[in-house]
Amino acid sequence: MQARRAHVDPTPPSCRARTRALARWCLAALLASAPAWQALAAQATQPWLDRSRSFEERAAALVERMTLEEKAAQMRNAAPAIERLGVPAYDWWNEALHGVARAGGATVFPQAIGLAATFDVPLMDEISRVISDEARAKHHEFLRNGQHGRYQGLTFWSPNINIFRDPRWGRGQETYGEDPFLTARMGVAFVRGLQGDGPGADAPANPRGERYRKLDATAKHFAVHSGPEADRHHFDVHPSRRDLYETYLPAFEALVKEGQVAAVMGAYNRVYGESASASRFLLRDVLRRDWGFQGYVVSDCWAIVDVWKHHKIVATREEAAALAVKNGTELECGEEYSILPNAVKLGLISEAEIDDAVTRLFAARMRLGMFDPPGQLRWAQIPYSVNQAPQHDALARKAAQESIVLLKNDGLLPLSKDIKRIAVIGPTADDTMALLGNYYGTPADPVTVLRGIREALPQAEVLYARGADLVEGREDPAAAPLIEPQYLRPAPGSSERGLRGEYFRNRDLSGPPALVRVDAQIGFRWDRGSPTDNLMARGEVGPREAIPNDGFSIRWSGQLLPPVSGTYRIEAAANDGFRLYLDGKLLLDRWQPSERLRADSVSLQLEGGRAYDIRLEMYEADRDAAVRLAWELPGAKPPFEAALEAARQAEVVVFVGGLTGDVEGEEMTVNYPGFAGGDRTDIRLPATQRKLLEALHATGKPVVLVLTTGSALAVDWAKQNLPAILVAWYPGQRGGNAVADVLFGDVSPAGRLPVTFYQADEKLPAFDDYAMRGRTYRYFGGEPLYPFGHGLSYTRFGYSGLKLDRERLGAQDTLRVSVTVRNEGARAGDEVVQLYLAPLEPRRERALKELRGFQRVHLRPGEARELSFEMKPETDLRVYDDAAGGYTVDPGRYEVRVGASSADIRLSRRFAVAEEH
């Protein structure tokens, strides 16, 4: 046997010792950094977690491991979890029209139409950044609490950039008005702020240098969609190509090309025979081929159902789902895409086409940082306390101030703060709904106009009377005043004021309450948010005490303390069911679900000085929630008479009326005189209010009209007879303060009309006619009641020195325009300088004039500033040429017009476009 040779290590002993020490150190380091090694291991087996790859590569790697059924499920808004792949559930549906909506407490800014009235792009930048901060903070708080539901994600279906072509459209309030240029400028600013790309933004990037998105914005509803609401699931629109490309498409094009908007939402209706949510022309040819859109398309909610059920473009669900995906709609809000696996089996669509759609969706989620450690993204560190922060509240007030339009002033405004007695009258003076419009969050402390005036005049007597219902035939749940805290106590002998509220996480008041607190008054409105969300935002309760958005119930109990003896009318209202007891006796019982806030009342004799046990119970099934407990005291006059009496006693009357989101809005089932399906059939102030307004004027007291509205109102009589008219729109959570700031001169108004106000007897084109002829200031040849861009001030502005840097424009030239504006009045104020372009030798039918620039500028008394604008032929002078099938620039003479509105032109200069175009 051969002897085994001994192994001899040639390494010197000192080196061997150092090597063993280094090995021990490495082992310790490896153990200490186990999470990092775990991450590396995960990246090897789960490449979609590898941040060194592109977002698209990561998404493709994830989709590759999914079954066909899992892919189809991920193409619906409520995408389920895929636990084996570590994919959490995600609902794509979220809203942020003028603040984070339907997710509980959030700052509520003026409705979109009011934001447009500011004509202030930098302000929109600031507002959208605030909204995105609150949205990010809310999303990560939801995640920390294991919540992945609707209105809790990072994909927001805002803004609405449809053109408000007709004042009858109930959803026009959601838009930026009737002008494509204004809509584009406000829309681009909103999108960039929401997505983290606004001025001064420093969006984080992945290791490959690809920028993350803060949120996804969605441009909707692509592309020809503005009513009628009642027909939106059926009608087919065939606009001229000129109207399509010059009116309906430009804002969408700007949001895609300039704003880099993440998503586009299709509409319900057909366009040229195709469903807008399954249109090859709109989604493939225009959006992707012509504009180079790289994002994803989502259908409007249940619009894919319409493809087969109402439009009857195809016969089956499978055909509808396949058609929508093949034509470019990757994400469905609805359930039809659940049938996609069967559509693949039938040969209607390939799995490869499904893969492409799902990969786009997951790339979007990757770009939002959803599959990265939270610590990698600074937006995930935004504290929840930013929601409704004091500085956000202040910004909401500033936005409301800037949105208010002074239509008329015969010298009555601003009112003196030395007024001893003022009457505030009207159906929206003390109605929170008049602040909110639609698609809103829950403000912590909304200020109505009545409250705003009272806060502005603490030394004055402010008389209030509702006076009239909002519209005829409406069961008005806000007619009686809320029972004030001094007449309520939570228990016998208690020094607290209000009622004891017990909040339950179920509909039947069962089990122990999740939260118990004393509520001073019972008057709440939660837009798809839970009752405790606004308190959570202020840090007054925590997640463990939270009540769900739907399926909750509340019991308020305590004692009612009538101040005098007599007949009281006690009113309760809720959405959904409610019951009211007094001394153990059931007085009102409406324990059934309801689609809207409804009221019931009872009249009974009560003794002054006696305490009555009172109990109000309510439950919420789903959607919006609201509740009120109100009364009318003995001897209360009928509302109309009470209003006239208040007016006679006052030095001046402020009438606050108009509309609310209860009567104008999205596809409503309840109709009133002058309203149909959420749209309007009469553009005048409702008859109930006209009658009251005329009676108030007849008292001889000066009357200021303050309009809450989301659309143009024909107030011809008021223009002829009243000294002052303000439009407050739906001004958001601090709207009442903002109106008072303008009424009493703390702020000089400078809002401008983003829509034309027509006269009451104007014969408008048919509502369902989408031709632009005769519509909006661009094509309307008549005399408006108030023109687009109109708005007065408490000071005066002069214009001078309009200059063009050239008189003849070539193909590659840029026209530079400058003008000097001076504040010629005695007080500081804002002026909105507007630049319009008009063709002097039109070669084809085209707009009479078009907005091509605007700037809002603040000037002190005597201060002057030179402003400059730029125009480029290929964007600002283009028109659609039917023969060429595309845009062209017509040669000839044009006029630049600069002024304070589309009708108030102060200066003009002409230039020519060379024939070479």
Automatic annotation (TrEMBL):
<dbReference type="InterPro" id="IPR037524">
    <property type="entry name" value="PA14/GLEYA"/>
</dbReference>
<dbReference type="GO" id="GO:0031222">
    <property type="term" value="P:arabinan catabolic process"/>
</dbReference>
<keyword id="KW-0732">Signal</keyword>
<dbReference type="InterPro" id="IPR001764">
    <property type="entry name" value="Glyco_hydro_3_N"/>
</dbReference>
<dbReference type="InterPro" id="IPR002772">
    <property type="entry name" value="Glyco_hydro_3_C"/>
</dbReference>
<dbReference type="InterPro" id="IPR013783">
    <property type="entry name" value="Ig-like_fold"/>
</dbReference>
<feature type="signal peptide">
    <location>
        <begin position="1"/>
        <end position="41"/>
    </location>
</feature>
<dbReference type="InterPro" id="IPR017853">
    <property type="entry name" value="GH"/>
</dbReference>
<protein>
    <recommendedName>
        <fullName>Beta-D-glucoside glucohydrolase</fullName>
    </recommendedName>
</protein>
<dbReference type="GO" id="GO:0046556">
    <property type="term" value="F:alpha-L-arabinofuranosidase activity"/>
</dbReference>
<dbReference type="InterPro" id="IPR026891">
    <property type="entry name" value="Fn3-like"/>
</dbReference>
<dbReference type="GO" id="GO:0045493">
    <property type="term" value="P:xylan catabolic process"/>
</dbReference>
<dbReference type="GO" id="GO:0008422">
    <property type="term" value="F:beta-glucosidase activity"/>
</dbReference>
<comment type="similarity">
    <text>Belongs to the glycosyl hydrolase 3 family.</text>
</comment>
<dbReference type="InterPro" id="IPR036962">
    <property type="entry name" value="Glyco_hydro_3_N_sf"/>
</dbReference>
<dbReference type="InterPro" id="IPR011658">
    <property type="entry name" value="PA14_dom"/>
</dbReference>
<dbReference type="Pfam" id="PF07691">
    <property type="entry name" value="PA14"/>
</dbReference>
<feature type="domain" description="PA14">
    <location>
        <begin position="494"/>
        <end position="647"/>
    </location>
</feature>
<keyword id="KW-0378">Hydrolase</keyword>
<dbReference type="InterPro" id="IPR044993">
    <property type="entry name" value="BXL"/>
</dbReference>
<dbReference type="InterPro" id="IPR036881">
    <property type="entry name" value="Glyco_hydro_3_C_sf"/>
</dbReference>
<dbReference type="Pfam" id="PF01915">
    <property type="entry name" value="Glyco_hydro_3_C"/>
</dbReference>
<dbReference type="Pfam" id="PF14310">
    <property type="entry name" value="Fn3-like"/>
</dbReference>
<dbReference type="GO" id="GO:0009044">
    <property type="term" value="F:xylan 1,4-beta-xylosidase activity"/>
</dbReference>
<dbReference type="Pfam" id="PF00933">
    <property type="entry name" value="Glyco_hydro_3"/>
</dbReference>
